Amino acid sequence: MNFKLNAQITRRALAMVALCVSSTAFGQANHVNPWINENPIIPPTAGIGKGLWLKGDLHVHSRHSKESSNNPIAKIVNFCKTTGMDYVCITDHDNHVNGDVAHNTWADPEFKSESVLLLYGAEWTTTRGHGNVFSAVPYDHQRLFDVRDQRDVAVGTVKKQLGIHLSANHPSGKDHFGYSYDMLGSLEVWNSVLWSKNAEAVMIWDDMLSSGRKLTGRGGSDAHHGVPDKPELATPNSKQAQANYVGTPTTWVFATARTKQAVVDALTNGRVSVSANPYAPRVEFYADLDQDGKTDVMMGDNVKSTGKPVKFRVQLSGNTVADSAYTIKVVKNGGPFGTFKATGKSPVYEFTDTPEITGRTYYRVVVEGPGTDYPQVPQAKALNGNMVGLSNPIYFNFDPNF
User: Is pLDDT above 50 for 23?
Assistant: First the structure.
């Protein structure tokens, strides 16, 4: 009797569980998340149009950063000229001057150049982490420094009022960016010559992209030390200049003109590629949306998916090694899409895929292969390993009002 009663109770309990599960599943099937826009209105892209690739470094320290050595601004600018750099942003620590960057780095008589575009910026150095500011014109950095310990909503208001591009530095390091990523225009996914130490930064980047944030990936050498002019001026850190200096890595921007504002705009728009050094091949990434043989968009662009196949094109430009093979790793929505090989003097690889007609999709590229000599920084090649460069994503269905 007890056995039969227990069996009946068990059957009734299982039936109740099944009913609950069935009812829950039925209810969830009709649920619509009000925060997800499955049909965002995406304005047409401007097209690739005319432009030029400009190369530079977005994270460099001069003598105005206290821990820097043998690195006056004139040395940085002259080095940029020697290596053919088009632009540089000298990002000295603002806490060393209590936020008064305008009367230190920018007021330095050496802060000038007729050939190298000098962006205005600084490393926002706070107890909650570090970020870089990029601007084509002088701005009131003191206001950003003063608000550093306030809540994100106050920081974001000041940042917006200043009209600056704010970027997170070394997001997985000790001094990682501890503020809202919604305030950012870009993320330092490649810090210093040691690419191998950036895996977690790239993971964070993919997390942000997958969540709907159209966030530019950039590089920065974070160089602090220059080559001493005299042996007696050498410091224990002087050897770093032989391994990590301006251009390790190099950030390329596809700008509409050779101006400071065009550099910042290209950075904001994600038309950016990062290479191991200024002589290494540049990764370019394009898409032919209707497969008519003409490229329609490039990295950084965001378009609406039609549900039809898209042909993508990866090409390496510049100083390639003709008799070597380059490994092209395509990342789709944060995961591996495929690994391919490209050879020849101008290596090119094309692949086809169909982005989801609803929901977000993005593709980006990482290229590995033979290293490139950097004569002015002779130890950089060995430390780079086989890393050549990376692209920013091409986006589909990313809500511009996110």
Answer: no
